[in-house]
Amino acid sequence: MRAPPKRAGIYCRLSYAEDGSEEKVDRQEGDCRKVGDRMVWPISEYHVFKDNNKSAWRRNRNRPGWDAMLRAIELGEIDAIIVYHGDRLIRQPYDLEKLINVADSKGVRIASATGTRDLDNPDDRFVLRIEAAQACRESDNTSRRVLRGHEARVARRAPRKGGRRGFGFEPDNRTHRVSEADVLVDAADLVLAGQTNYGVTQWMNSVSTGANGAPWTSSRFTRVMCRPANAGLLRDNDGDLVRGDWDPIIDPETWELVRTILKTRTDDHGVYESSVKYLLSYIARCGYCQAGLTAKRRGGRSEERRIMAYRCTNPVCTNRVSRTAKLLDAYIIGRTVNLLNDPEFLSRLPGVEKNPAVSSEIAALEQRRIKTKKQLENLADFPEIDAAIVARSLGSFERKIAELRGQVAETSRQRLLGRMAGVTRELWDDTPLDVRRSTVRSLFTIDVMRSPARGPGFDPAFVEVRLVDVFE
User: Fold this and answer.
1) How far is Cα 112 from Cα 102, in angstroms, rounded to an integer?
2) Which fold has domain 178-267?
3) I need a labelling partner for 107 at 20 to 30 A (CA). Which of 30, 282, 361, 458 fits?
4) Which pLDDT does position 447 carry in this prediction?
5) What is the CATH number of domain 8-138?
6) Among residues 326, 291, 292, 286, which one has the least CA distance to residue 306?
7) Is the Cβ–Cβ distance between 189 and 203 less than 8 Å?
8) Which bin fits 2, alpha (ψ -120 to 50), beta or left (φ > 0)?
């Protein structure tokens, strides 16, 4: 009888979990542990690999757990794998051959509730190849059935059936759940008013939870707000949006604008607002090296005597810019409130209208960009296509999309300033921090210079505040 392996790993995979829940992969792990106990295979706690929401059908699908498992086999860290079922591990002959190449001559064994296989055994390899081919065929058949079903649903303009209900809808995904639909409408208004994703999700967590009861996160909020069903739309098999036969929660023009703003924010890799606690962190800059300033405690031997100050974040900057946070905040707040109550400034602030034409154009360009990118990635299938022309077309789409998103961002900024026009100091203090930060960022660039004077006091001469052109 062959000796048990020295160290076994566990691999779990769930193809689709709408809410990102790990409950089912955790259940698979528990079943795998029972298999290991029954076969007396020692399981390494450091080699439990999970791929949640990861399909094994497409070759180009990234599976971090699968890749980590292959590395562990190659390095000799494990010599066996336990899976819930064989199709959790492999659904493509390509994957099996890759696994065999990595495990070749290492005596790696595979176990599941349905039996064991030895990758070092030619007969077992033969059986595994047959099973992988059958799984691949079943995946192809399933894909065809799903595509045909989706085509029929698009032809009927009907919402999807089954699965978890979408937030804002009843289980039929057609009837509005009014309490949740109102939350989506209000959230769209907050986005259009300039509030950050963090601010909106904080508010949403105070009034609701997701459809499955989970708290809101920025990524979940963005995913739900960008869902076409909210606008009464659905995608056909080519990825194009078509009108559904149910009433929208958010009108399509507003939804297009909100989606474009959220996409613009996703592409902007800036400071996470959830980590910022002070008004001017990373907005005010060092006047010498242009690095952002962040609030830190300084001075005093006791905690009670130390104060918060904005300091340059560049470790190699020799100018040691530092300014008391409370005083710099007060100076900038005063200038902001005064400007938002200046009749001349307000008279020049343009009226803000929705621009659904721009958002629709962006959506159309995005579709063309995606199709062009697919052509570029699969040039081997299209030998008649000139790669240089496709690449130039892709670059042209991306430049145009960036230009149009800039217009949407400008409109969003003007909408924010229109909302804040006439604000009093009391209302300013009651406004969420992320909206106040967005307002300051929309109005000014702030460069802080090193002040020659030391001690208490504040000299505005060493703070250079320039008004951003908001009238273009």
Assistant:
1) 20
2) Hect, E3 ligase catalytic domain fold (3.90.1750)
3) 30
4) 94
5) 3.40.50.1390
6) 326
7) no
8) beta
Question: How many Å apart are CA 382 and CA 372, to the nearest integer?
Answer: 12
Angle at 374 between CA 373 and CA 375, to 5 degrees: 90
Question: Is the separation of the CB atoms in 53 and 13 below 8 Å?
Answer: no
Cα Dmax for the chain? 91
Residue reference for tokens 């860290």: 77
Give the list of residues 6+ apart from residue 246 with CB closer than 8 angstroms, or none. 159, 173, 174, 229, 232
* Cα–Cα distance for residue pair 436/332, rounded to 1 Å: 11
Q: Return d(Cα 145, Cα 139) in angstroms, integer.
A: 10
Size of the chain, expressed as the number of residues it contains: 472
pTM above 0.90, yes or no: no
> Average pLDDT of each block of 10 consecutive residues along the chain (472 residues)?
81 60 68 87 88 54 79 87 69 70 75 68 76 71 66 72 82 89 88 78 86 83 89 77 86 81 61 68 90 80 71 85 90 91 79 53 64 59 55 64 61 72 84 84 90 73 85 51
Note the pLDDT of residue 61.
58
